[in-house]
Specification:
The protein has helices at residues 3-19, 22-31, 45-52, 54-78, 93-110, 123-133, 135-152, 155-175, 184-201, 203-211, 222-229. By secondary structure, it is mostly helical.
Length: 230
């Protein structure tokens, strides 16, 4: 198969996998509710948790994570090493294509062709991709996310901070801790771009945070509860 056509197919399949609107499917099929018409109108797990309950929220979260992981795994399984362009990065060809597949899936989730080009914020789908390409940075960001949720109760704030922490963590590991990271100069810019994409998707949440009107989950503020009981 022509290398350019092969890459085009990988991008298309990654987008279509990422674009599957599991929040919409689960909401309509099992609850008779269109998540786009309740709460924030976002097709992500947070809005589903808030309006349809934890069972639906967990299901959407798991499936949205899978949307980021599956395209990367498919590339790892089926892609051969012939590229349609010269690879000037320090990564192997297959790794570059995995990054392309992952980010395309995130874009598909955020702008789903099956849901009027609406979607979620991209956090869970990004998590699925990062499991494959940056597991250490993802683990640290997950810890930061939980800390922010525990103290402040804002899922959006925790998500934005975690997204920014990922490229910063890689920068610190490489430049301050002298950890060897294969393809660092490619991956750190890629992760920074992904963080900017997540911040862009959360621009309305950021505005509500500044206005003091963002929805909070008090039940998740376990550090605050523990402090009050002392």
């Amino acid at each position: 198969m022509d290398p350019t056509l092969r890459l085009a197919i990988i991008i298309l399949q990654s987008y279509l996998i990422g674009a599957i609107p599991f929040a919409l499917i689960i909401g309509k099929k099992f609850y008779g509710v269109d998540p786009r018409k309740v709460g924030s109108g976002n097709l992500g797990s947070t809005n589903v948790f808030r309006n349809l309950g934890w069972k639906a929220g967990v299901a959407v979260q798991i499936l949205d994570i899978a949307k980021g992981l599956v395209p990367v795994l498919l590339v790892a399984m089926f892609f051969d090493t012939q590229m349609p362009f010269e690879n000037r990065t320090p990564f192997e060809d297959s790794t570059v294509v995995r990054l392309i597949a992952g980010i395309t899936a995130v874009v598909g989730h955020m702008f789903s062709v099956f849901a009027g080009f609406r979607g979620g914020k991209g956090i869970n789908t990004s998590v699925g991709m990062l499991i494959a390409v940056a597991p250490v940075e993802l683990a640290i960001a997950a810890g930061v996310f939980l800390l922010f949720i525990g103290f402040f109760g804002y899922v959006s704030l925790g998500s934005m901070v975690a997204a920014v922490v990922i490229p910063i963590t890689m920068f610190v590991r490489r430049n301050l801790l002298n950890v060897e990271i294969d393809g660092y100069l490619t991956l750190v810019y890629f992760l920074a771009a992904l963080a900017l994409l997540v911040l862009y998707a959360h621009r309305s949440n950021l505005r509500r945070l500044l206005e003091g009107t963002e929805h909070r989950f008090p039940k998740l503020m376990f550090f605050r509860r523990k402090h009050r009981h002392v």
